User: Fold these one by one.
Assistant:
Number 1:
Amino acid sequence: MLIFKTFSLSSILWMLSPPGRSAMSFYEKIYFVEITNLARFLITHKYFFANIQIDRLEFSLIDVKDDLGELERLKLTRKHLFEFEQLISSSSSHKKLVNETFSDLEEENHIAEYLKQSLIHSEIMVEGVWRNVFLILVAQFLAKKFNFSNVGLAISNVPWKFAYQKFSSTRNVNIFFIKEFSFSLPNFHNLARKSPLMHFFLKSLKYKEGFFDKNDHLDANLYLEGRGDIVFDKDGSHTDFFWLMESRFPARNIVYQYETQDEKDVLLRNGIRAKKITPSVRDLLTFPKRYFPRFSFRYYLEYNLFRDLLNFYYSNLMTIKSFFKKENIKIYLTWNKFDADHILKKEAVNSLGGVSAVWQIATDGAPLIDSRTYSDIIFTYSKFSADLERSIGSKYKCIVITGCVKDYKNPLLMDKAQAIRDRLNSNGAENIVCVYDENSHTDHRWHTGHELQRENYKLILRELLKNKRLGVIFKPKTAYTLRERLGEVNELLQDAEETGRCLVMENVSRTTTITSPIIAAMASDLCIHSHLCAGTAAFEAYLAGTPTFLIDREGFPESKYYELPDGKVVFNDWPKTIVAMNEFFESSLCGDLGDWKDFVNELDPYRDGLGAKRMGFFLDTLRAELSKRRCKDEAINFAAEAYKADWGDDKIIFGTLN
């Protein structure tokens, strides 16, 4: 079996070449994952392909699992990409282009970290390293499933051939590289970012505001990189300002980038400085010191990749640094550690004597490569999360253990939750269950697909329509497209909603459903998270005091959550979960069903709901010290010592980051 990642004219020419003909002789069946229009036209004409049958490769991501039942997509970030990254770093091309260029630049090690993160960062939904590596795993899976003794994968000519060859050979997959012909027009954005000066100038033209401003701020300011959750009320909604509302940090010292005029108005009304990231004209000719690898014809593809990454790095660094300087930003705070952008912004704020900080937004159950962090400060919920950071190679000066920062102990939320409960009770619901889902995508090759999400609704809705005492609250991850993604199941949902015993929380912010899962948990007797691999909402629900189930249909046996009791908390399908749910409601002695016991203490050692307050205290202390013109190391150490005095020496973990 030979699989073409993209079957194109280049693929056809390769098949006709001597190397291609030689390779083709070993394979009886030929498949493609994607196909160009021209290639599709040619293969439908027997004149061109008289004796060759080429078919579309049919596979679903949800089916591709290893021998132990772990979904390869989950194993990709837990294990495979760590291996692939090591193969890249040990390759002669990497040693030549990176190690020799940056080996003597100890003070510039952030560039090496930026490149390291950028090389492996991708998404399976788009072209890149993740998809290429995953297709090798798909080929291996199909070879085992259909007992093919010989399987090959043909991909375009990409950097890191050595790494791909080594990775695929250990999985008995032969890999071929085909040079593609590119007829695309130059991308203006890519051309612009090759020049820091041009990028700087175009950025200023795009937004204009503040281009001629100068730094007239005496106090240290904080730039908050949020998710668009602009909420200032303690009403159970997601908010980027959770830590502000529980601290004495002055709102006037926070800078936030708005997207719309409505967002700007809300920010200004609450004392936040709403801005666009616009550089200052005064820094137009202030170029960062630039380093590039020496040109290599032998490693031309890798050289081009590094050159593009470094052009992007320097162009954005110049713009961000100018903006931070103009606004006197001394603290850069973000949740987004999932790409290399936070490393670039760390360097920008560090170069101005400031501090970078990242707060934990999800509770990973295992070490994941895309969660690796490079920051002065990391706010984590627990020692378990801190240990995960260390195990994946995160670099930091200081880890601050805050406990969960969500507001799960706020008595004001109980009133809102009770109102939801009363509404369902008034229509006959005596037993209320909350269901958490995840997002889905039409293309089931690169995502678990809509059908998995439809099952989250279909089975429990049928139970609701059958059981007049059951009420269901759905808390979707992405409400924008929920009804469309549900397809025919939406009709079942509408039938359930007409009973008055079914509620869907569909309030949205810039990106996701804005209502916190905690409100839904407080209104319910039992919570069910349909995806153990993304169990943060389940953890928050249990912290709020509601017994909680986890379902693992994908297959993630290496998750920390598998330490919870099987058949009591963890289930592997919906039918078994519904049986356990009915037992939970029907038995006066439901035993250990949904009970996490002491396990939850490993994820939040405090269990007091004061995580946001602790985080806000640390940030306010840090701001005060930086406003005194202390150097960043002194400010971090002062804030850390003050934090330890209140919460214990074990709640601060120092690292070795310079």
Number 2:
Amino acid sequence: MLMPLSLTAAAQDLITGDSLQEVVVTGTGTQHLLRNAPVQTEVISAQMLKNYGGRSLEDILGGLSASFAFNEGDMGSQMQMNGLGNNYILILLDGKRLHGDVGGENDLSLIDPYNIERIEIVKGASSALYGSDAIAGVINIITKKRNESLLLENATRYGSYNDLRQHNGIGLAFGQWKSYTNFQLQHSDGWQNTATEWTPSSATPITDSRNKTVNEHTNWQLAEQLTWNVLPQLELYASGSYYRKGIYRPKGKYPKYDVKTFDMKYRNASAAIGGKWSHGLTQTATDAITLDIDWNRHAYYHAFTSTTLAEGFDEQGRLILDFPYFVGQQSLQSDQQRVMAHMKGIFSLAGGHRLSAGLEARHDYLKAPTSIAGETASDNTEALYVQDEWGIGLSRTPTDRSSRTSTDRNSQSDVTLHLTPGLRLNRNEAFGLRLTPKLSAMLAAGNLRLRASWSQGFKTPTLKETNYRYIREMTSIIMYLGNKNLDAQTSNYYSLNAEYTRGPLNLTVTGYYNKVDNMIALVTVPRSEAPADYRQQYGELLGKVRRYENMEDARTQGVDVSLRYSHKALAAGLSYSYLDTDAHVYDNDHDRLEKVTIDGMAHHKGTVFLTWQKPGSWGLGLYGRFSTKRYYQIDGNGKGYQIWRLTGHYSFAPHPSPSTLHTIITLEAGIDNIFNYCDRTPHGLHLGTTTPGRTVYATLSVSFKAGKKTKFTNIFNSKNKQNDEED
């Protein structure tokens, strides 16, 4: 017997567009209903994730938010958020910092898309709460919480270009213990949008290159989370993961273009322990103290597929620029490790104040034998932060609040002012002390929310930016140099937001201005700046020397608009982002400041969607995304594009709902890039998008649950009710 799934009230709310009932935590580090969050927060909900059917986090963010841009590459995600790149975006996994490449591009394939419950996005400098890396904003990926006594789940997705995505999970709950084990596998054969290389006008054209737009890659990860509820108020956990990735590059016949002599390998590992102690004996208690200690490692290797002369060490340990490597050998390029401890407390105080305070200590270690003089470098940072949340009632309807119904209270007829000041004190062993303040305010009146924010950001140079020295052979030989004389980057972020909700309609408009001083970027410098041994080794073959330098200043400014409407089973929405950027860079050749555009900037980006959802069984979705031209200082601009996507899913339960055994089967299918757009710009120049053209996919998901799931719904409802009244 096949029966449609019965949806919970929360899921029904999501379908009917009442995502304002979502509980969010990222903006302030404390729980708030989305509609009452003092700091503007964008949410990609569980239902949106299910309808969209994204293959990766890049696919999800790029398709459902206009603020992001991606170019998938061998070294990482090449992500940009409101004009600023990876280095300025902090990615959290359940509130904890994601560890990937601490000096460049995050590897977002560490995140299993089937394990995501929702995504919270807070734009702008949030350094008072989160510290370094958060000048552009924060992305907090909230994972699914499993509470069944037995859970078995499998999801297999297969698509064009042999694209395989596999997810397996095993959950157990027995007494005071819970365990969840997760395995994920991702593979793609990669694709080639063009066989043409960009060559100088004087050179022979190359039209049969073997270079791919996206190379073949395989990665897998095994992760475990173990939780022990020692007491009703005390929870302890331990977690760990191991991750491997290989990128396989084709071999061609044109030196400097498609002759590749090594593949790339990554090895990641993590371990963490921690706990949470909740104040009080009631389920509505919001006060808590948490402690988290984690270790993370990210290692990157060259795996040689041909005999190669590259930087290496002889038997006496001396660095040789033309050391021979043979097929099957590996060379460690970088081994990055981080140990971090974080203690945080949330306390409800008299007068409607909610205080958050925390301590952080972080140790970063980098080993790069062929890229750092002395082979290793390290850095230590400590921080103390405090934040207060205060709601002030400015006016109230004549009816006594305590006598009103829940519906009356949710009408939000009161006028309240919410203030959230914060302060963070950082100490870095190389850059000393720095104080960064933050202030957010929200005026809530009926269906209208007005928000304003100002915050300062502070970001010290990474170990790579200060210490690296290495060669890369592309269309020419390019040398990259670190700079020990870099200054720390600072920023001032200002935003104004207006949000109006009436029934099924929600409209949000945000204007922002982000000024970054001493912004660090790679700048081309005279070849005479290269170390003498490299100039002697490569001579005239050394094409460019690029060094990390502080720009005088940089700014991003823009407007984000979001409009959503839902009626019964139908939902529609759009998001639009206007962006303008500029920066000043010192021109060594002409001894002057030059005004430039920040790389990757597009003035206009947008997304649109239309979905139809039949409660409990199936749904259809049409999605579009577009971008105008992306600007770059060198190697050409990326073309604008417009891409459309069609998705569908159907779920059913083979067992009657009263049964203690619950099996849910979901079938998904979709067509991405319906109109087959493909950017065929020659290799060596920038692309607007790396999409290969029209692709198709299908997914089969099976979830088996046994035992009674812990009923957290009432807990969260009571917490939300309490927070609502506090707000």
